[in-house]
Amino acid sequence: MLFHSTIFLLLFISIYIFYWFLPVKGKHYLIILTSFLFYLWYSIPFMLMFLFLSILNYYAAIYLLNHKNKNILTLIVGLDLAVLGFFKYFYLFASGIGYLIQNDYLIHIKENLIRDYNIEIILPIAISFYTFQIIAFVVDCYRNTITEKISFRKFIVFILFFPQFVAGPILRASDFIPQIDQPTLEKRKIYIGSLLILQGVFKKVLVADPIGYYTSPVWQNPSHYDAIIYWFLIFAFVVQVYADFSGYTDMARGMAKLLGYEIPENFRGPLLSSSMSELWNRWHITLSSWLRDYIYIPLGGSRRGEFRTYINLFITMSLGGLWHGATWNMLIWGMLMGIYLSIERFLRVHDIKFLPENQFISFIKKGFTLFMFSFIAIFFATPTLNNAIVIIKGMFLLPRGYPLISYETVIVLIIIGLILNYLQYNRTIIERIYHNETLQFRLIVIGLFLITYLLYLYGDMGGAFIYFAF
Predict the structure, then answer these.
(1) Which residues are CB-neighbours of 403 under 8 A, at least 6 positions away?
(2) Which of 31, 223, 400, 433 has the fewest Cβ atoms nearer than 10 Å?
């Protein structure tokens, strides 16, 4: 059930009609019921597994509030990671062991299990996001970041809050729990929430989906394309992911506002960053901060010497890569990010500069950061390592080959995506809209006509969000 689908629109309107007539507890139960329906749409068994893990983690966290038992903390976090690891990484680890011991059955474990026993391990939707959110809650109880017991009802609302449940933003209890009994109905929230939803649909339907439609054949089978296609393909993918995921976040934030809550912004114009470290402070912000607080800092952060800092960065980003997907490509992507960030930190700490500071150089740095981010993203975008190698070779060996169908359209969509990114980076226009209710109302009316037309034209309007796969 996608946010931009007709069925979800009807579900949200149905619950919203009653929502604001209910007391606070009633609102909570309606959110829980809707969240259950949203998840049950995908799988009843996985919903039951989620409930079991939630109950177990809740009582462990409540225990840790008053009893700082590191063994209990290790046990419950280890269980959460074991469940995530089994569903997400079983095939990767089993095939990796197979390569090490030269066992053909393990190398092709997925195909063999399906053929011999008709067994296939399916990844539960949202498991990466809710696992990280649950772990953060348990650890925060142990650390005394959370100091007061909350009811199981509030915990489930926090964990299962349907606008962000499937693909984030990753909520922190310290940000969301204080709001949980105080949802507020304000005209400003309704207007801005509606605009965010429309903006998210625009990014998803008019930018991300068309780019994916035209470029996915190249990622799946990159041989025999012209070199120039490879060069703008990498920028197309980054813009596609940005529009797709920030579009989801816009919709999630918009729905949360309509329900009277605030959830964090996940993107702040990342594609205009002057460095990779700045980019990761603007891209998937809630994941970046989670990796920092629950992996990088526990590893020692920057407190154990310069060399250990680089190792910690490398480990954190490598694990961040694996979080995105159980493939060698994702691991390589994370490792390259870790190496790049380590080099960047070394140059910054030792005040090594290759160019003077001025406006033109700042523009060059932004362009170089975008290129490096896009180039490394080749490993994120391609399904196999061989496909990534084909594209990288093609970029530099400059082969002649097939053109991309409707490449002019893709170029226009890249430009539109970069403009949307600029509006997030330089928030002057957005802030003016947010302070002008008349303009907000007019934009909502125009946007509703546009969305109605898109529903008529495209039906359920495209495919799943990219981060639903994680």
Answers:
(1) 225, 226, 229
(2) 400
Burial-class residue 265 by CB neighbours within 10 Å (0-12, 13-18, 19+).
Answer: middle
Q: What does each of the 470 residues of the chain score in pLDDT, given as a tens digit?
A: 555 566 777 777 888 888 888 999 998 998 888 888 877 777 788 888 888 999 999 999 999 988 888 999 999 999 999 999 888 888 888 888 888 888 888 888 888 888 888 888 888 877 888 888 999 999 999 988 888 888 999 999 998 888 776 666 888 888 888 898 888 888 888 888 988 988 888 888 888 988 988 888 888 888 888 888 999 899 999 999 999 999 989 988 998 999 999 888 889 999 999 999 999 999 989 889 999 999 999 888 888 888 899 999 999 999 999 888 878 899 999 999 999 999 999 998 888 887 778 888 888 999 999 999 999 999 999 988 999 999 999 888 877 878 777 788 889 999 999 999 998 888 788 878 778 888 888 888 888 887 777 656 654 545 666 655 55
Burial of 229 (0-12, 13-18, 19+ CB in 10 A): buried
Q: Which two tokens stand for residue 397?
A: 């060996």
Burial class (CB in 10 A: 0-12, 13-18, 19+), 378: buried
CA 396 to chain centre: 31
324 is annotated as an active-site residue: yes
What radius of gyration, in Å, describes the C-alpha atoms of the chain? 23
* Annotated catalytic residue within 4, 28, 284, 324: 324
